[in-house]
Write a structure and sequence with these properties.
Chain lengths: 176, 293
């Protein structure tokens, strides 16, 4: 698991990638969708996306890569920490995170779910979903939120479209 | 290089479990515990704690790390609320490590926070000075090889003005130090590095918020849950470690902080007072002073 923390060399490479990625920006997404961060909300047709090649580290790679791109394009700071897990059809993954009011967060998920998509929602301490922007493309998605209050929030990652096969997912976030 | 021999199973397992399960355990439920851990934490005999394979624990740790914010996120939120004048909060660097490995561990954590502070201030010279002290403390703990590549990368990134990259390196360095100490089977020190870092982070935050220019006074405590986390980590220290005078002092004051910033008060929407903020800073200041000597 050590490879999850970016190595010094990795950070340098990332810097080069970030410079290059600045030009890529968010147009990397095929069809940006606006809406609640509820990971569903009626946009199901746009949420299912084909997953390309089979790669055991695809989820990790997509999440890290996208975080680098966002940092470069949007002036965000990255986390060294990254969550990896499997999201099964019978239940979402819920990851607690401490968020601060005033900061803007973009949760970045890379995943490998053949024929399915993932939804991500951020809930505050009272269980209310935070409104936000959702962008999706094949094997990756981003949800941008601005917490109204500082405190423990919960990020729910779940399979969409009733997919039964478990999906490997990796999540990190950027902030500014 | 000094290495302390210690009984592996109780100390490592208890401390590692506390360290590795802390975010999940305290954040996963409805709310962190309201009351601080008692002097004798309520847990079964240490023989009941399974000594899980370290690799397994490390996997859990990787998954849980994202639950804990980076110090920079916290500093960034403060900077949105006021002009923090970061350089004002520098602490004098003391070249000689404090006496005893526990305090060396705590001071190493404090230096990690100091590094994030210098990065917020975009102060390359200060970063070099702090980096030298981190290297010195790491050497005492047998971790010099683990920190050297990261510090070299920091030097380069700071020279390029990539402060975001510097922050990421220091966040990763903190986790690597903790993992390195667990590999040495020294769970107490792994916890103390984490505790030291967050105490110093909250020391800085409470100082800034204590000036009275920030509307949300709860920022002084880093938000709901963090004081409880620190107290929880402290509760995971071995009995031998907790019995040490300075560590016991830290436990008493961190317990008080947990009561002041209890989740119930957050949940009830209670307005915190400037006096509570200043009391928080004073207590953390006292702890840091004790652990730095």
């Amino acid at each position: 698991m050590r490879e999850e923390a970016p190595s010094p060399t990795g950070a340098r490479i990332a810097l080069s990638a970030m410079a290059a990625a600045a030009a890529v920006s968010l147009v990397d997404f095929d069809a940006p969708a606006q809406g609640g961060a509820g990971g569903g909300g009626g946009g199901a047709a746009a949420e299912a996306a084909p997953v390309p090649e089979a790669d055991p580290k695809a989820a990790w790679r997509r999440a890290r890569s996208l975080a680098h791109q966002l940092a470069a394009a949007g002036g965000y700071s990255q986390r060294a920490a990254l969550w990896e897990g499997e999201v099964a059809g019978d239940g979402p993954a819920v990851v607690p995170v401490q968020l601060y009011a005033g900061n803007e967060y973009q949760f970045v998920v890379g995943f490998d779910a053949p024929g399915a998509g993932l939804g991500l929602a951020v809930f505050d301490a009272r269980g209310r979903v935070l409104p936000g922007e959702v962008h999706r493309a094949a094997g990756k998605m981003v949800t941008k939120v601005r917490p109204a209050a500082s405190g423990v929030h919960r990020v729910r990652v779940r399979l969409l479209d009733g997919a039964a096969a478990p999906a490997a997912a990796a999540m990190t976030y950027v902030y500014k | 290089m000094r290495r302390r021999l210690q009984p592996a199973t109780p100390r490592l397992a208890a401390a590692a479990l506390a360290l590795l399960s802390a975010p999940g355990a305290l954040y996963a439920g409805a709310a962190p515990p309201a009351e601080p851990p008692a002097a004798e934490p309520e847990r079964g005999p240490v023989t009941d704690v399974p000594d899980l394979p370290e690799g397994h624990l490390a996997v859990i740790a990787e998954r849980e790390k994202i639950s804990l914010p980076s110090p920079v996120e916290y500093f960034t939120a403060i900077a949105k609320a006021t002009n923090p004048r970061w350089r004002k909060w520098y602490l004098e660097l003391v070249p000689d490590p404090p006496a005893g490995r526990p305090k060396v561990g705590a001071s190493l954590g404090m230096l990690l926070a100091e590094a994030h502070l210098a990065t917020m201030a975009r102060d390359g010279q200060r970063l070099r000075n702090v980096g030298a002290e981190i290297s010195s403390r790491a050497k005492v703990l047998g971790l010099e090889d683990a920190v050297a590549p990261r510090l070299a990368a920091v030097e380069t990134l700071a020279g390029e003005g990539n402060w975001g990259g510097v922050h990421v390196e220091f966040e990763a360095l903190g986790w690597e130090i903790g993992s390195g100490l667990l590999r040495q089977r020294d769970g107490d020190l792994a916890l103390l590095v984490l505790i030291g870092q967050w105490l110093r982070v909250l020391h800085i935050g409470s100082a800034v918020v204590g000036l009275g220019e920030v509307g949300d006074l709860s920022l002084a405590a880093g938000g709901e849950g963090l004081p409880g986390l620190v107290a929880g980590w402290a509760g995971g220290l071995s009995e031998e470690c907790r019995a040490q005078e300075d560590i016991a002092f830290m436990l008493r004051h961190s317990a008080k902080l947990t009561r002041t910033w209890s989740p119930e008060k957050f949940a009830g929407g209670r307005e915190f007072t400037l006096d509570e903020v200043k009391d928080t800073h004073s207590r953390i200041d006292a702890i840091i002073s004790r652990l730095s000597k």
